[in-house]
């Protein structure tokens, strides 16, 4: 019989493309991962991967096993979640969300959920969008909120369902005295001569802003990179440059900046819910998804 832990290690190797990256994600040594993969291949009597200087590449048998393992491990995680929920004293739903959702979207959703289902406890977890799939697979959460850009879709493995909720349009931040601050909308291509304040992102979106500008036909002059949108507002107010930010990040607005929509076709963030495909979802999680579908409309006024 196949060992579940060994399949988990194999799935990590298949996902990361190398023994080293899989070992780091599983807090194992490289040699331990290599040994487990050798045992798995010996047990099956098949070569599952070829090893090269840049990592590993799955054979046909490896690709089939990776696909089947994803389904099997997802089912096992679902069983574990269901059993954990059945032993809980009260029904609960565990939701992970990206940090900028916490300022307004999540409070509105939780308030509405608790109004409809006062006996269900809501547990929240802040997590980067790129980490939420792992939280789902580990059983830490039932649902996750993620974002991506319409011009650079975020890719998910076959075991993750993505349910689109709403669009979060990008707008441009100007200081109050900027010539374009009173315009009803601005064309991104007309801002090619500006200096930009850019919020940093983790891969795969570390180059997203540059990509967006290139699609508009110019190479941006990035004058400053900051860690969060609040800092970006302060730098714009100080005249360091202008910035492109999602509307959802502007709940707390700096008094000396103006947010101007980008004229169509405007790039935007897309907000979605994610959950494990085919898993046994508790009723509370389905109820939360229903509330998310009803309550995630981004406000019209940034």
Identify the notable features of this structure and list them briefly.
single chain; 302 residues; alpha/beta; seven-stranded mixed beta sheet; two-stranded antiparallel sheet; 9 helices; globular; disordered C terminus
What does this structure look like?
The chain has 302 residues and is of the alpha/beta class. The chain has helices spanning 4-16, 19-26, 30-44, 60-87, 105-116, 132-137, 208-216, 229-237, 283-295; strands at 49-52, 55-58, 92-97, 121-126, 143-149, 160-175, 195-199, 221-226, 243-246, 257-261, 268-276. Strands 3, 4, 5, 6, 9, 10 and 11 form a 7-stranded mixed beta sheet that branches. A two-stranded antiparallel sheet has the order 1-2. The chain has a two-stranded parallel ribbon with strand order 7-8.
Secondary structure blueprint with pairings:
Layout: H1 4-16, H2 19-26, H3 30-44, E1 49-52, E2 55-58, H4 60-87, E3 92-97, H5 105-116, E4 121-126, H6 132-137, E5 143-149, E6 160-175, E7 195-199, H7 208-216, E8 221-226, H8 229-237, E9 243-246, E10 257-261, E11 268-276, H9 283-295
Parallel strand pairs: 3-4, 3-5, 7-8
Antiparallel strand pairs: 1-2, 5-11, 6-9, 6-10, 6-11
Helix pairs in contact: 1-2, 1-3, 1-4, 2-3, 5-9
User: Biggest sheet, in brief?
Assistant: 7 strands, mixed
Rg from Cα? 23 Å
User: Can you write the helix and strand succession as a string?
Assistant: HHHEEHEHEHEEEHEHEEEH
> Cα distance, first to last residue?
57 Å
Number of helices: 9
Average pLDDT value? 87
Uncertain spans: 297-302
Report the structural category. Answer: alpha/beta
In total, how many beta strands? 11
């Amino acid at each position: 019989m196949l060992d579940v832990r060994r399949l988990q290690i194999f799935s990590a190797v298949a996902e990361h493309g190398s023994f080293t990256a899989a070992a780091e994600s599983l807090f194992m040594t490289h040699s331990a991962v290599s040994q487990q993969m050798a045992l798995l291949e010996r047990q099956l009597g098949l070569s599952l991967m070829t090893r090269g200087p840049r990592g590993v590449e799955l054979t046909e048998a490896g690709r089939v096993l990776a696909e089947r393992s994803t389904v099997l491990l997802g089912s096992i995680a679902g069983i574990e979640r269901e059993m954990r929920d059945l032993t809980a004293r009260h029904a609960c739903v565990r939701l992970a969300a990206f940090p900028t959702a916490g300022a307004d979207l999540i409070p509105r959703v939780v308030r509405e959920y608790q109004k409809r289902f006062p006996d269900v406890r809501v547990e929240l977890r802040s997590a980067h969008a790129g980490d939420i799939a792992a939280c789902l697979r580990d059983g830490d959460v039932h649902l996750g909120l993620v974002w991506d850009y319409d011009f650079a879709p975020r890719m998910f493995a076959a075991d993750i369902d993505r349910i689109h909720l709403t669009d979060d349009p990008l707008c441009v931040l100007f200081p109050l005295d900027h010539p374009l601050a009173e315009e009803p909308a601005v064309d991104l291509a007309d801002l090619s001569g500006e200096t930009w304040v850019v919020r940093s992102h983790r891969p795969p979106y570390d180059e997203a802003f540059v990509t967006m500008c290139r699609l508009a036909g110019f190479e941006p002059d990035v004058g400053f990179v900051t860690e969060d949108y609040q800092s970006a507002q302060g730098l714009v107010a100080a005249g360091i440059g202008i910035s492109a930010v999602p509307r959802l990040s502007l709940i707390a607005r700096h008094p000396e900046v103006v947010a101007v929509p980008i004229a169509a076709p405007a790039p935007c963030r897309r907000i979605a819910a994610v959950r494990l495909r085919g898993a046994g979802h508790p009723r509370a999680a389905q109820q939360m998804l229903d509330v998310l579908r009803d309550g995630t409309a981004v406000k019209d006024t940034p």
